[in-house]
Design brief:
With about 100 residues, the protein is α+β, with helices and mostly antiparallel strands. It is about 20% helix and about 45% strand.
Amino acid sequence: MTQTELYQVLQGSGIPFAYHHWEKPPKQLPWGVYFLEYENKFYADGTLYYHIAGYRAELYTDKKDLNAESFLDNAFNQAGISYAKTGSYINGQKLYETTYEFEV
């Protein structure tokens, strides 16, 4: 899956996403960011055999928003992307962050 295809999956959730950061985040929550964390490439006989890209997507909300999470969960599930999900609260910004880690 290309980064462009991943962006389309994220946009399919109905939640606005930007790569890495927002210059001016949307005024209304929820919104998110996503970025490449690592790449693993396996070569055999001088040829790229397979490529795995590890991404992280972060969903930001002003309250624990299970509805927004379900939109994103469904977008990943429909695209066949398995993920690990964690949540935390950013006290200084008064935002909830739900983090998705996955490989494509």
